[in-house]
# Entry
Amino acid sequence: MGYSLVNILGGLLIVTSTMVVVSKTIPSAIKWYAIQSVVLVGVLLTLGLTTGATELLMWAASAFVTKVILVPFILNRAYKKMGSPADSTLTSSIKPAWTIILTGLEVAICFAVVTRLSLPTAEVATPALAISFAHFFVGLTCIISQRNILKQIFGYCLM
# Structure
């Protein structure tokens, strides 16, 4: 049951990360990033409870404090200090529809690569491993496709 929940949360992680990338405003991206971070904390908690690894539970607590609370607070503050520039300038070099298609391709390629690997000890977590790789590429896509520095910072945070 635990690994099934991890895989479901992993899929949700990709969806929420994609929403960060395609958000048209910084406040919206910050909210999606906080939601994405809560999902990541859920993945860490589930893995920690399923495997009995207390280190993962500590990572979950640390991720909650840093990614759910501190990073959104710091980004909100930076956004306000910038004088809340017009959100209409948040243009990406790729249209949102193409970003979603690109994310789907990244996920498909990562699944194709990971399923070809022989990982007997991690067989039940193969989808989560593929999603982890894909998540890295979603962050990279955000860095490359965004023209706004705050949106590029989200890409680094997603990676």
Summary: The chain has one domain: 2-158. The chain has a mean pLDDT of 83. DSSP finds six helices and no strands in the chain.
